[in-house]
Amino acid sequence: MMNDQHYEITICSDSVGETAEAVVKATMRQFDAHQVITKRIGHIKHEDEIRLIMEAAAKRGGFVAYTLVQPELREMMKEEAIRLGVRAVDIMGPMMEAFIDTFNDSPKRKPGLQHEMDDDYFRRVEAIEFTVKCDDGRDTSSLLKADIVLIGVSRTSKTPLSIFLAHKGHKVTNLPLVPEVKPPKELFMLQENRVIGLTMDAEKLLKIRTERLKAVGLPNGAKYATLDRIVEELDYAHVLMKQIGCPIINVTDKAIEETAGIILGYMN
């Protein structure tokens, strides 16, 4: 996109719209999409709403992505897309049709089932509460209660990974590794596949820590952000991880989602 024009993707749903938005944003990350903005419209109930949304989208350009479980709303979206010449991407429809054709079943056609407060919902809430409480080694006794224990030196994405995994329903605790601090005895009582070691290339970690110092207003010369100290910490952490026998993941330039996928693969 070489001009200054901005483009818009309209995200429509008869529920919250998080599913469609997640797909759109995952797609946008594959492109240099600085000129593209998204607009999410949820809880669509009537065909008239779709008509107005599509007419507005036709004026602005771009395209529409939607998750609509009610067949009359999906049909209206298709008709308006043809009438106005607007590209409309049905994110959920093909999947539902494949399910119907393959398993000879009928959908409930009820919006928002993903957000119902069922057992899975409460399990995720419990996991998030546990993970927040146990962040950064605050409660070492929790190591024995966790589904996943992340270990690594400072700034290796332990906290954001923990929260991401907690939203998937896993109780996670993370422990920073520092050469001067003896690791808790509970760490050596865990099965190897419950512990995941995180590491990072020293130069990348140096850049991250230097930026962290700037963010908190500390001088650049602090030992925390020197290459010698980082190498020392990484070497110490590597020896400890080998002693435990846990998998080790190099998170350099990896997205949180990618690392989480690798971790869950180990868990399975």
From TrEMBL:
Presence of keyword Kinase: yes
GO molecular function: kinase activity
Domain of life: Bacteria
EC main group: transferase
Keywords of the record: Kinase, Nucleotide-binding, Serine/threonine-protein kinase, Transferase
InterPro entries: Kinase-pyrophosphorylase, PPDK_reg
Catalytic activity of the protein: N(tele)-phospho-L-histidyl/O-phospho-L-threonyl-[pyruvate, phosphate dikinase] + phosphate + H(+) = N(tele)-phospho-L-histidyl/L-threonyl-[pyruvate, phosphate dikinase] + diphosphate; N(tele)-phospho-L-histidyl/L-threonyl-[pyruvate, phosphate dikinase] + ADP = N(tele)-phospho-L-histidyl/O-phospho-L-threonyl-[pyruvate, phosphate dikinase] + AMP + H(+)
UniProt keyword annotation of Methyltransferase present: no
Cited Pfam families: Kinase-PPPase
EC identifiers of the protein: 2.7.11.32, 2.7.4.27
Binding of ADP, residues: G152, V153, S154, R155, T156, S157, K158, T159
Family from the record: Belongs to the pyruvate, phosphate/water dikinase regulatory protein family. PDRP subfamily.
Functional note: Bifunctional serine/threonine kinase and phosphorylase involved in the regulation of the pyruvate, phosphate dikinase (PPDK) by catalyzing its phosphorylation/dephosphorylation.
PANTHER family for this protein: PYRUVATE, PHOSPHATE DIKINASE REGULATORY PROTEIN 1, CHLOROPLASTIC
Name of the protein described by the UniProt record: Putative pyruvate, phosphate dikinase regulatory protein
